[in-house]
Each structure stands twice: as C-alpha cells, then as structure tokens.
Amino acid sequence: MEKMIDDRKSLDRRTFVKVCMTSLSVIAANPLTLAASTEGVRSHNRVLLRKPDGEPVTSSWLSEHRSAIFHYPYVTTPCFIIDLGRPVTAPEGSAWPGGAGPGSSIVSYSAICAHRHSYPTRSASFINFRPEQITYVNRDDAQVRGRELIYCCSERSVYDPAAGARVLGGPAPTALTSIMLEHDPETDRYHALGTLGKEQYDVFFEKFAFRIALDHDRENIREPARDAATVVPALEYSTNQVRC
C-alpha cells in the first residue's frame, strides 16, 4: 500500500514536471507566447479540492454547479473552477494544457481580474462566469455576442475560459492566471498544483490588504493554501452576482 502511494506521488511530480517542460519548450519555440499569455508555470502546494461538506469534489458535482469558487494558491486568493460541458483543447502554440476531468471540460482560473483586480467577495461579485448568451464590446470596438465567458462588470473586461482565459474585450492587459489542475481518473478527485501565466497576487495584496484581512478574519493574508481547499458554488459564494 505504501509503495502504491509512493508511486502515485512520483507520478504526480512527473506529471507536473512534464507540464513545466512542455510550457518551456513552447515558449522557447515562440517567445511571443510568453509576452502574450504566460509567464511560465509556477509550482505551489498540491491541494485537494473538496465540497462544503468536506468530501472531495467530483466531476458530477462540478457538472451540476457549472461554476464554483475556491481559494488558491493562497487562502485568500479566489479562483474559478468551471465545467464548460464540452471538451476543451489548448489552442495551437499555447502552454495552457486545456480542460481536465473525464470529459476534458473542467478549467480553472484566478478570479482576480487582470485590470483593476476586482474579485468575488461574500457580499458581491462583479466578475462572474456567464453561461448564457451575452453582448459585449470586443477589442475592435464592435458589439458581438458570446456565451460561456467570464465577464468583469467593473470595467467590462471579457475572458474566454475555453481558450486559456484570453482577453476578448475590455481594458484587461492580459489573460487571467490559469490554475493547473490534476484529475485522478481512478478516484475522480481533483487537486490544484500551481499556476500558469502572469500572477496578480502581489498587487492584489497591496491594494486590498485591509479588506482581505477583514473578509477572511486573518492577519496573514499571504498564507499559502495547504492540504485542502473548500469549493463553493458561485451562486452561493456571493450574495449579489452583479450582471452587466
């Protein structure tokens, strides 16, 4: 039994190293990839994703709720985990690995907007996953329609979760930070392993330090997430889901 656990841990490390090496090879082949969408893979603590009742998150639970919030890689930094309901493959030349889970449909991103760092709180969320069809202004200042997008109503930045959360419209200068997921097909459990892309955490902590400490009732707002993170359905996490 101990050997099986050791073998699995070894496999997990090899999987993450493989993702890192793949990302580096893509960046080396096309330096514009680094400037446009990623600043490389960063390893953080391996954290189990669990439901509010303490049981591990499963694919069927994610499918039922579509969009949920958890905190990673710090206990105060919110993330989206989204089931897009269809296979999600990485765009050509991208270091982003695409969807996770049995249907390759599960994606995860930092829920901190890359523009002015709006983020979901218990009282309100101005940045949300929008499964329904919405109208927004794209980078060419044209009104277009789309669905299954992440929309930040603070400054109307729009991100595509099916394409590494690249920016489709609004003032955001870069994609949302991707959260690297590991899915175990035998247990149907999910772990967060690290991040990919430009992290917003230092600016986030400096900008909202007092509010974050108050919201989470803790002095050390930079404490890393460890062991497990609780995943809460987005509609339950924030009292007011701001739509625009």
- What portion of residues is helical? 25-40%
The CATH topology: Rieske Iron-sulfur Protein
Mean pLDDT over the residues: 87
Class by SSE composition:
alpha+beta
Number of domains: 1
Q: What would CATH call the architecture?
A: 3-layer Sandwich
Shape: globular
Instruction: Give the CATH H-level superfamily.
Output: Rieske [2Fe-2S] iron-sulphur domain
Largest sheet: 4 strands, mixed
Index terms:
four-stranded antiparallel beta sheet, 25% helix, 244 residues, globular, alpha+beta, Rieske Iron-sulfur Protein, four-stranded mixed beta sheet
Plain-language structure description:
The structure is a single chain. This protein is α+β, with helices and mostly antiparallel strands and 244 residues long. It has one domain: Rieske [2Fe-2S] iron-sulphur domain (Rieske Iron-sulfur Protein, 3-layer Sandwich), CATH 2.102.10.10. It is 25% helix and 30% strand. The chain contains five helices and 16 strands. The protein has helices at 2-29, 31-37, 59-65, 201-216, 234-237; strands at 41-50, 67-71, 78-83, 106-110, 124-125, 127-130, 134-137, 143-146, 149-152, 157-160, 166-169, 178-184, 189-196, 228-230, 232-233, 240-241. The strands form five sheets. A four-stranded mixed β-sheet has the order 12-13-1-14. A four-stranded antiparallel β-sheet has the order 4-3-2-15. Strand 2 and strand 3 (78-83) form a beta hairpin. Helix 1 (2-29) packs across helix 2. The longest helix is centred in the first third of the chain and has 28 residues, at 2-29. The chain is globular, with a radius of gyration of 17 Å. The N and C termini lie far apart (53 Å).
